[in-house]
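for the recovery benchmark. tokens below, seq after
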């Protein structure tokens, strides 16, 4: 649960946009710590490079197969989330608790990026995409979640 005067960072993001909000205590004022925008992920695959899957052929049987390949969008989104994770790691002394709010895929990438010190400060994760909500709607959603902690 949020402590009465504990400084908490809230990461709200996905592969396109992200921000970190800070709140001191349960009803303290909210401050925007950082905001990011990933404009490259909005481009089409064909604009980013080759959008076709790799192909191969087995030597012994001659059977053809498609190779699974991470899309350029996924790679750019992972880099974007990594950048956010680096910022959180570097700012570990600026907060006492951390709440992560992101869609499941972005949440997984971000959690892998966080160091041990930050991971110990992790209060909870919420696997939802709240990036398109206004700050007022976001806090209403988060307060509903916080009541359940």
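predicted aa per position
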């Amino acid at each position: 649960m949020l402590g009465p005067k504990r400084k908490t960072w809230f990461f709200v993001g996905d592969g396109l946009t992200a921000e970190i909000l800070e709140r001191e205590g349960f009803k303290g004022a909210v401050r925007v710590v950082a905001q990011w925008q990933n404009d490259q992920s909005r481009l089409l695959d064909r604009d980013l490079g080759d959008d076709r899957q790799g192909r191969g052929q087995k030597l012994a049987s001659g059977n053809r197969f498609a190779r699974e390949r991470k899309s350029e969008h996924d790679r750019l989104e992972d880099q974007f989330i990594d950048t956010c994770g680096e910022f959180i790691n570097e700012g570990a002394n600026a907060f006492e608790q951390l709440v992560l709010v992101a869609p499941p895929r972005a949440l997984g990438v971000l959690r892998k990026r966080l160091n041990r010190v930050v991971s110990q400060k992790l209060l909870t994760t919420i696997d939802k995409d709240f990036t398109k909500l206004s700050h007022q709607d976001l806090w209403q959603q988060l307060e509903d979640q916080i009541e359940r902690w």
